[in-house]
Every structure is written in structure tokens, then in C-alpha cells.
Amino acid sequence: MGYKRVIMGVQKTALYDLHKSLGAKFVPFAGYEMPIQYKDGIVKEHISTRTHAGFFDVSHMGQFFLEGDDTLVEALEKTIPSDLKSLKVNHSKYSFLLNDSGGIIDDLIVTKTDKGFCIILNAACKENDIKHISKFLGKNHKYFLNNDLSLIALQGPKSVEILEKLIRGVSELKFMTGNSFNYDSESLYITRSGYTGEDGFEISISNKKVKKLIDFLIDNGVKPIGLGARDTLRLEAGLCLYGHDLNEKINPVEANLKWAIAKKRKEVGGFNGWSKIKDLLTNGSEKIRIGIKPEGKVIARENTKIFSSNGEEIGFVTSGTFGPSVNGPVAMGYVKSKFSEIGTSIQLEVRGKKYEGKVSELPFYKKSYVK
Amino acid sequence: MSEKKFSKKHEWVSLEGDIATVGITKHATEMLGDIVFVEVPDAGKSIEKEGQAAVVESTKAASDVYSPISGEVTEGNKAIADDPGSVNGDPEGASWFFKLKIKDKGELDSLMSKDEYDKFCKENPN
Predict the structure, then answer these.
(1) ipTM, 2 decimals?
(2) A204 - beta bridge partners?
(3) Which of A40, A82, A243, A276 is the least buried, fewest Cβ under 10 Å from its Cβ?
(4) Is residue A31 part of a domain?
């Protein structure tokens, strides 16, 4: 019998052929064949998002819908530390799923809908997330992952002007709110949000109509942007990437994301890992996520060891790259909390040599969200 | 200068007397994408054929640059370390990586001609 190579379960988004026609280079990402870059390359794609507008196919992410009575809020609040009870319809929050010890199972955006909630989940985590969430749900709750929908991020300063031409009213959305709109005799859902530090939108649209939307964007000068530039953009904006800057062993206090836990929830608790998190909120954590600016041009990539100026090993890098808008290297990582003050001198060990760096403010690049 | 010879690891070398100039190929830069960091060896360093000699990083990843020939480094190209992006512009010309005083001219025989290298790239697109 001959040997046959079978690639199991590699998935493609509805726009795969379009990416191909635009000259995309593909990489396997979370079980999907995704474009890492197009013809222009990462730096040009990054800059055109910051100065004009770019679109990103993020249809690999999970669009998870929950419906149910009042008990749904209580169920979700057991693992999500947001104030979901007070969340108004069409408003979104950045939050996480927490495990028993307060570790982050995934980070997410949760939006209150007419019937319940919509949660956007990371592609690599979505199956596991749904198993986790379903443990808290009861008979009166319905949930489903909608694979008939694509998700398109339109990001950059020109996004609003361009999208308003196609869909009247989107310019009225404020940051982290959304609404339903009509497009080509279908209803689609748009939120003003993103992962680049720029103004922009995330558009949830049927797989059938998505190509038409993209054709409009391309005709209006919007460039396709791959995962490569998505990474440099989010890192300059100081935003975490799950599986790198966040994982199940890191809690929101260590991740410097305590702002994302609702004030009321910090006091009253009632969610996974609360006793641990409460203790850390009072006493501080041993390590904490920081921004890092290496001196010179050297890039401190993931797993680079971090030392204090006295040579003590104090932490490690979780994300690091070249920031095209910063025009220099940028990184994030975890250090012992006493070394986390902005401006602290640190050393980064790259290929066996130590390079100087400094603890830096996040974001590296200032945002321009519409509030 | 002699005609360029090419390695399977996408370096080129050209010889003038017993001094070899080494760089990375146009094809290599196209695979790497935007180059954002370069480290070149200092003069005086001895390098074996196929030994690690320099570093090139794109926005995506770091890669080693190997020397297609043995010798002692006479000069690293500081201009590309100061302006890594220039390597994308002229990789087989002004953006050479380092020069070596070679030990054994015979080592060049195992390298590919331009035509052989182009064919090699077509057959091994990644």
C-alpha cells in the first residue's frame, strides 16, 4: 500500500479565492489557511492601515451566539468578569473566560444583542471555549457558533468615510458599540471596534455577500491586510495576542488587564478565580506584563530572556517585532513586578548577547478611537 | 569581479583576486519580505564554508546567513546594518553582507551558476 499524505481538517474562509487572486501568501493558522501578507508586504500594509484604510479577513474567529432568559446573564458571569447585567443592547466589552484559578482561557469581545449575547472568540480557542461556556449553561439557554457568517475588520482613519458611502449610519456608531444595518437586502451587524489602535469597524456578514462588500472596499482604495501586519499593528497598539501574551496560567492582574474586570465584579466577585484575583488586586502580583523598547535595531522576539541591569534574570518576552510606525523594535513581556516601572533599564538576551532596553509605556502608538 | 556563484541557502558570492564578496539573493529577499534587522561579522573572524556568518531579520522571523566559502572576514557591510531596508532594494549589488579572504578557491566549484540557481529556485519555491 502506498503512502498518501492527507491534510486533516484544513479550513478555508469564504474569501480564500479572493485572497489568492490578490497575491496572498498563505500560512496555516489555527487550522485555517490564512493570508500572512499580500503583494505589498507587511510594512506597506501596516502603513496603509495607519494612514488610509485596510481590510482584514478574520472569518476564522468564532462568532458565538447565546440566547436565553435572565438566567443566561448569571450563567455567563460565572466565567466572564464583566458587568453583563448592566451591559446595554448593542454595547460591547473586552473581557475573558476565566478558569478556576483565574487563568485566562481566552480573551474576547462580548456584545449584548436583542436575544442575548454575541461573543467573538479566538480561532484557535473557539472549540474549547464553547465546551467551557456550555458547562455553565442550562436548559433555557441556546447557543451556536455561526459558521455561515464571515467577519471583516475595516481599520484605519479613512474607514468611516468609505463605509458610510455604502452603509448609511455607520459613522454614528461610537467605539465599542454596534448595530444592525441593511445591505443588499440582507441584515448585517457592524461594531465600531478593532485590533489595530485605529478607528474602524468589524463587519459580520453572510458568506454569500462578503465578496460583494470586499469588491466595494477594494474599488474604494482599501488594501487587503494579512496576519503579518495585523500582528505589528496590534503590538504597536499594546494589545495582547492569546497564546503568546496570554494563556491559561496567566491571570488578568498579571496581564495588566485589571481594567477589563468590572468594578462591581471586583468587589462582589462570583466568578471563576475571584478569590485569587481579589488577593492579587489587593497585594499585587509577582510578575506583570510590560511594554519593552529595545535600544537600537535589535528585535527581541518571543521567549527572549529579560535581565535586570544587575544581571538578574527577571522575565521573558511574549511578543516582539519591528514596529513600522514606531520605526523601531517593540516588544511585550512579563517581568518581576518591582522592575515594571516605566523607564526601568533592562537587558535582553538575543543570540547569546545582551542588548539594552527600557520598560516602556503601552501603547507604543497612540490610538484614535471615536468616543 | 568573477561571475556570481550561488548556494542552495540563497547566498551569492563573487571573487576578485582572493577576496570574496558575499550577500543574499534577490529570491531570498522576496521570501523574507521587509528586512528590518541585519547583523554582519566583524573583520578578523574566521568562517568555515556553510558556517553561520550573519543574521537577517524580516518582520516575520530571524534567519541565519551562511558563508558559501571558507575564509577570514575582511569587512562587514556596516551600511546595511544601519539601514536594513536597503537590502530589499539592491541585495545582489550595494547591499552585500561581508567580504572574506578565501582559503580555497576550489570550494567555489560546488556552487551553482546563475542559470542553475534560477532552476533550483523554480523547483524549490519555498
Answers:
(1) 0.86
(2) A151, A189
(3) A243
(4) yes
